Amino acid sequence: MAVKIRLKRMGKVRVPQYRIVVVDSRKKRDGRVIEEIGKYHPKEEPSLIDVVSDRAQYWLGVGAQPTETVQSLLSVTGDWQKFKGSAGTEGRLKHAAEKRSKLDIFNEALKEAGSESVAATTPKSSAKDEKKDEKAAPAATETPAVETPEGATEQAEVEETKALDAEKQQEPEDGAKGDADGTDAATPSS
């Protein structure tokens, strides 16, 4: 069986990402592989080349033939020179600069704006804390019954009943005068 080390294409349209794979030479480009030994992302700046060196050395040692592209990638990482035993095994692989964290960028923007660098993030509260706050909030912020709409209607009903009671107390006095006249206010005249 002829074994090759070649690229297996993955990724989206116009965003290729490759796996460096060991595969039988009769298989399709993206067919079943024996082993994945690395990855290559050419669109990143600089290109990401990640090879598991000891597995690449093993497969080269047992006779796997790399394609031209994979051979150039292995020479960039230094694995091809190591296999051939030549000088320059460190390779010429470039590494991307470390990205600054968003928190650092935010704090720098605050300093430029003239504000002091206070906590850039708010502490996350858990569900337990929120429940405790909800339980404590009603006890602390209870409003008198008069200020709520329900309390206002209850108070209005109480005032109305007091007014009706006052009218009933005044009616017998008025009714006594009406009886003296000989007319009954409670019974309609026919």
Automatic annotation (TrEMBL):
Pfam families given in the database record: Ribosomal_S16 (PF00886)
SUPFAM superfamilies: Ribosomal protein S16 (SSF54565)
Bias type Low complexity, positions: 137-154
Compositionally biased residues, Basic and acidic residues: 126-136, 159-180
Top-rank lineage group of the source organism: Bacteria
Coiled-coil stretches: none
UniProt record similarity statement: Belongs to the bacterial ribosomal protein bS16 family.
Record PANTHER family: 30S RIBOSOMAL PROTEIN S16, SMALL RIBOSOMAL SUBUNIT PROTEIN BS16M
Record-given protein name: Small ribosomal subunit protein bS16
